[in-house]
Amino acid sequence: MIDIDRIKEDFLNQKEGVDSLPALNNLKARFLGRKGIITEQLKNLGSLPKEERPLWGKRLNELKRFIEQEIEALRASIIKTEAEEALRRERIDITLPGAFVPPGRPHPVTQVLDEIVEIFRSMGFAVEEGPEVELDYYNFEALNIPKDHPARDMQDTFYIKTDRNAPQRSHPMESDVVLRTHTSPVQIRGMMKRKPPFRFIAPGKVYRCDADISHTPMFHQVEGLMVGEDVTFAHLKGVLEYFIKRLFGEETPVRFRPSYFPFTEPSAEVDIGCIICRGSGCRVCKETGYLEVLGSGMVHPRVFEEVGYDPQKVRGFAFGMGVERLTMLRYGIDDIRLFFENDLRFLRQF
Ligand code: PHE
Predict the structure, then answer these.
(1) How many CB atoms are closer than 10 A to CB 263?
(2) With a threshold of 0.85, does the pTM exceed it?
């Protein structure tokens, strides 16, 4: 005699509290596993009288199938419930207000630099880049800056000591590797890899061993160079006047003043009417009514020769400007160090 009903009732009772897959697997093992109740009973069939075996075998197998079906049905329902719960947990209320992420903004120097680049782009200038760690050759030599030129003074130039050249040099600070002191070396690099006609600007960081309210050891310049068969000083004036009026306003007075750079001839410095006193004379413009904003000139024939151009056939103009200085004039800032202190009260004003 096997109490089929009792086993079934036991199963249904035990099934009651099962709500997870591990518990379900335990339940299954207790009834259908290798040592489970049903399995044991099936093994015991052999001890029954021969004529009773088919009947009990049939009833046991029916119970086994019933239990199997119940377990699989319960498994499906547990899986479904767990999936639904996971979905509920992961649900996002997209109507909730988001966490506030304060937007950053470009540094004022970057903003003005971007504007400068945009103005020259609109005139068809390409944008060129060069290394900040530069060879003496590109920074000075090829630009017709002789060995004894004041611009090479060790107070201005950061020299890089290299193992390669240190031993042969007479002076311990002398080296043929420098931090570029201006963006003009990009003129040389740019010309060596091009054929005229072309025009490009070269924005970037430059370094000078200098620090006070109007000088920092690192600052930004934008170089410009335009070369072709018939490029004249009139083009230089036209391009720079247009640039200044776009950056400082249509009414801004512009003045070209003769100057000297070893790599341009003739050379000119460009002044704008003082932004502070509007020309009447003040401390900022040292009572002159004008502020110097950039250096420029016609490319020196020696520079063309150095890059393999024929100075009889091509002409060009070049210019260079300091971005911090332009930014200070643009916004009336009187201390360049403010740009590098990262004081948010200052930076937030732009
Ligand atoms: N390189 C010069 C400077 O740093 C500026 C300049 C560039 C002047 C190109 C003339 C032509 O002062």
Answers:
(1) 22
(2) no
